[in-house]
Design a protein that fits this description.
mainly alpha
Length: 71
């Protein structure tokens, strides 16, 4: 959230949006809302990317080797 310049106070606002259909909430209304739907969309997109990458690493055949220290 910090990389998108969204205050941590909006964490609970972002969480349900991760599962909602984008078409139901992504449109900016043009009324200078804080935070704007565009900002929330950027945070949701980035969070989804990070979650997907994390899930891919966890299911990778080499995932178990990532946590072991190198010799």
């Amino acid at each position: 959230m910090q990389e998108s310049f969204l205050d941590e106070a909006f964490r609970e606002t972002v969480r349900p949006l991760l599962a909602r259909k984008d078409r139901l909430w992504r449109n900016c209304c043009g009324n200078d809302c804080d935070p704007c739907a565009t900002t929330l969309a950027r945070v949701v997109d980035r969070t989804r990317e990070l979650m997907e990458a994390s899930a891919e690493r966890a299911t990778s055949p080499n995932a178990e080797n990532l946590s072991e220290p190198a010799d």
